[in-house]
Each structure stands twice: as structure tokens, then as C-alpha cells.
């Protein structure tokens, strides 16, 4: 039996894994779907000081308090920043890091550095328009490539504003460095999109023919790929 820790992306919460977690549990595995501070059902904890380190601690605490060993830790989208920053002290609790259509930062690189100044400026404008310059409202023009109207409505109703500081904080300079730690990159590539490639030597690489929120649009296919990581 393996343990999966599924970490959601920006504006989401642990709720987004609702279609994937039962499939992993039915295969005999433990599944944890933490919601990061200030999001989802923990939106009432949002405050200007919530940063990337806060979210790294959220995930690290799950590993520690659940006494996990050799866990498969999955980070979707923004959560690539989070799982990349898990402290070296958590390395013995992790067997496999899975980046699901996720950002992979260089040491000390922020998400804002990755996406560029234009995107950061837009986030700041949206935050000011939303009434709190430290909190970015959920996107309205595009629901993460979800094409089914019912699914899009469900997701839109669950999204919550995201603390801006988590996007501007630099990533931890030292991701887990255990030599045998496996890493997988899963690219979500809608039909017609250009092919991807692994981020570096030693990575396992997979693709899903779907949009960004694969846990919503292709939960069965995603669960099958995750089971390969056990």
C-alpha cells in the first residue's frame, strides 16, 4: 500500500481531487488531499502574510503528522512550487514527486519570475479590482480548459481568491535531494497543442490528452498514471 498526497493548484482546494481519490483508494492506497492555507474550506484563514513557505509547511505537516513514509506527492500547477520546496528533512517521507502540469522553479525563483512581469501586473490589477491588493480573484475568462458546462460551473463555484504573496515569494533553494527520489512530469496537452518534453535527465515523462485540470476532465486516466508511480 502506498500513500498519495495530492496537492491542488492556485484558487483550488482539496475538493478538486474528489474524482481521483476514490480510484486510488479502491486500489488499496491511502490518499490525503490537503487544502492549502487561505483556500477552499480554509479561505477564512487567508491573510496578507500567507506565502509560499506557508503552503510548503502545510504539505510538510501532512507528511509529518500522518507519519508517512515513501509517499507519492503530487503537485498540480502552482503546487509544483510547493512540492519543489519541501524541506530536506521530509525527504525520507517521500518516494516520488509528481509534477502534474506544474511549475518547476529554479532555486530562489518565484512563480512571478517564471510567468513574467506582464502576468504579475495583471494579477496585481485583478487584486486591486477585487478590493484587496494581496488577494487575487479566481479567473473569470477561462476555467482551466474545462469544456463541459456542468463541470465548469461546479469548479467555478468552488474557486476562491488566492494570496498574491505565494506567487512572489522565491522558491526554497534546496528541494529534497535523496538520490533515489523518483520524479515524474505529467503534461496536460489538449489536442493540437505542441508536444512537450521532460524537464531534464532522469525524469519519467507522461502526457494526458486533456486540458489543465486533468483531475476534473480525465480522473480515470490520471489515476492510472499515478498508480504507475507506486
Q: Can you summarize this structure?
A:
By secondary structure, the chain is α/β, with parallel strands linked by helices. It contains 9 helices and 8 strands. The longest helix has 14 residues.
Task: Provide an overview of this structure.
This protein has helices at 21-26, 52-65, 79-84, 111-115, 117-129, 149-158, 165-168, 214-217, 219-227, and strands at residues 3-7, 30-32, 71-76, 94-100, 135-136, 162-163, 182-188, 204-208. Helix content is 31%, strand content 16%. Strand 1, helix 1 and strand 2 (30-32) form a beta-alpha-beta unit. It has a six-stranded parallel beta sheet with strand order 2-1-3-4-7-8, with helices on both faces. Strands 5-6 form a two-stranded antiparallel sheet. It is globular. The longest helix is centred in the first third of the chain and has 14 residues, at 52-65. It has one domain (3-227): 3-Layer(aba) Sandwich (Rossmann fold). The protein is of the alpha/beta class and 230 residues long.
Number of separate domains: 1
Tally of strands: 8
User: What is the succession of H and E elements?
Assistant: EHEHEHEHHEHEHEEHH
First CA to last CA: what distance? 8 Å
- Strand percentage lies at 15-25%
Radius of gyration: 17 Å
**The CATH top-level class label:** Alpha Beta
CA-based shape: globular
Biggest sheet record: 6 strands, parallel
Mean pLDDT: 93
CATH superfamily: Alpha/Beta hydrolase fold, catalytic domain
> What count of helical segments does DSSP give?
9
In the CATH hierarchy, the architecture is 3-Layer(aba) Sandwich
In order across it, which strands form the biggest sheet?
2-1-3-4-7-8
Enter the CATH topology name.
Rossmann fold
Poorly predicted runs: none
**Into which percent range does the helicity of residues fall?**
25-40%
Amino acid at each position: 500500500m502506498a500513500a498519495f498526497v495530492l496537492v491542488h493548484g492556485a484558487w483550488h482546494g482539496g475538493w478538486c481531487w474528489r474524482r481521483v481519490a476514490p480510484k486510488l483508494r479502491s486500489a488499496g492506497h491511502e490518499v490525503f488531499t490537503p487544502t492549502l492555507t487561505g483556500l477552499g474550506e480554509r479561505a477564512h484563514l487567508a491573510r496578507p502574510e500567507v506565502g509560499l513557505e506557508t503552503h510548503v509547511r502545510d504539505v510538510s505537516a501532512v507528511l509529518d503528522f500522518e507519519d508517512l513514509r515513501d509517499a507519492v506527492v503530487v503537485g498540480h500547477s502552482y503546487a509544483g512550487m510547493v512540492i519543489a520546496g519541501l524541506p530536506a528533512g521530509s525527504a525520507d517521507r517521500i518516494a516520488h514527486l509528481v509534477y502534474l502540469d506544474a511549475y518547476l522553479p529554479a532555486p530562489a525563483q518565484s512563480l512571478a519570475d517564471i510567468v513574467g512581469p506582464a502576468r504579475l501586473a495583471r494579477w496585481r490589477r485583478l487584486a486591486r479590482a477585487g478590493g484587496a491588493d494581496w488577494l487575487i480573484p479566481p479567473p473569470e475568462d477561462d476555467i482551466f480548459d474545462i469544456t463541459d458546462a456542468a463541470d465548469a460551473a461546479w469548479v467555478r463555484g468552488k474557486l476562491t481568491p488566492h494570496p498574491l504573496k505565494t506567487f512572489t515569494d522565491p522558491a526554497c533553494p534546496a528541494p529534497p535531494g535523496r538520490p533515489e527520489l523518483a520524479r515524474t512530469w505529467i503534461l496536460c496537452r489538449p489536442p493540437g497543442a505542441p508536444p512537450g518534453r521532460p524537464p531534464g535527465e532522469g525524469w519519467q515523462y507522461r502526457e494526458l490528452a486533456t486540458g489543465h485540470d486533468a483531475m476534473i476532465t480525465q480522473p480515470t486516466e490520471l489515476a492510472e498514471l499515478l498508480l504507475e508511480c507506486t
